[in-house]
Amino acid sequence: MSDVDAIVVGAGVVGLAVARELALSGRSVIVLEQAEGVGTETSSRNSEVIHAGLYYPTGSLKARFCVDGKALLYAFCESHHVPHRRCGKLVVATDEVELAAVEAIRRKGEANGCDDLTMITAGAALAMEPALSCVGALWSPSTGIIDSHAYMLALQGDAEEAGAAFAFHTPFLRADATGNAIVVETGGAEPMRITTGALVNCGGLHASSVAAATEGLRTDQVPETLYAKGNYFVLTGRAPFSRLIYPAPHTHGLGVHLTIDLGGQARFGPDVEWVDAISYEVDPARGEGFDAAIRKYWPGLPENALAPGYSGIRPKIAGPHDAAPDFRIDGPGEHGVPGLVNLYGIESPGLTASLALAAEVVRRLG
């Protein structure tokens, strides 16, 4: 007999959602987290956007779980009084070539199940946001913003109320999945050896390391996790915008977009900087590239108004010259190890998709 029905590695937003879903299904759950609290890495270092599901390839896990997760997330925020705002987003084109790209985004979004998208004229866009410069835009009214930390605390509260236990300052060391139960060893001040019927790897930046330390899983079944750092700059004054502003997407990303937090602080980013190690310092020199990109759609950006803000790191399972990868969820059907689910490359829209991803994990465990 196992000590516990399920162990979740990682207390980021997806790990929390998975722990909650498992606990609500009646399973006993322990969450292992090496940090001092929830969401200290990727989950707390992002744009805090509730995404609509516009950009992802139709039929992909990202598209499916973003659209499904958005509905679940708005309902959760309402029922749990998590601060959020359905502010909407404009994807703007500054020339005719970009206008065609934005129109393509509309078609993709509708194919993904976004049924509220509207192409609007430059005049209509400027009526909404007079400081803009564009030749047309895509209006996505169901895009929003959220207090990500409040959301994670609500997930943790639900999980604990349903019986889940959290072990902070408790790093995962290794697991043996070759027997009838999975044996997990942890470090920290009070090392443990626990047997479990299910192990869910929500390690984020460390997911590949967790999988590689799981005996019973072949090495060729573990992808390499690469680090893509996204830097953000903040506006030193008040921005004349009440909605999110995204430029037309380009080959290697969505461009420098403008988001606003629930307190009204405008922030710009992220850019993409491939790094070998986890470091969150923001180089002020990168602000020059931000300034030029922003002025394409906001020519009135005041001089010297940008200041280094913060950065986050996304776990990538494909390199800078590869096509953007989909979420990867490897359950027993993929690797043949009973009771084991590994999640790799869970980056944006991971926060939006978190509740839908959790339901999928529980489904794959059976």
UniProtKB/TrEMBL annotation:
Keywords: FAD, Flavoprotein, Oxidoreductase. Gene3D superfamilies: D-Amino Acid Oxidase, subunit A, domain 2, FAD/NAD(P)-binding domain. This is NAD(P)/FAD-dependent oxidoreductase. Pfam families: DAO. Belongs to the L2HGDH family. GO terms for molecular function: (S)-2-hydroxyglutarate dehydrogenase activity. The lineage of its organism: Bacteria, Pseudomonadati, Pseudomonadota, Alphaproteobacteria, Hyphomicrobiales. Its cofactor is FAD. Residues 5-363 form the FAD dependent oxidoreductase domain.
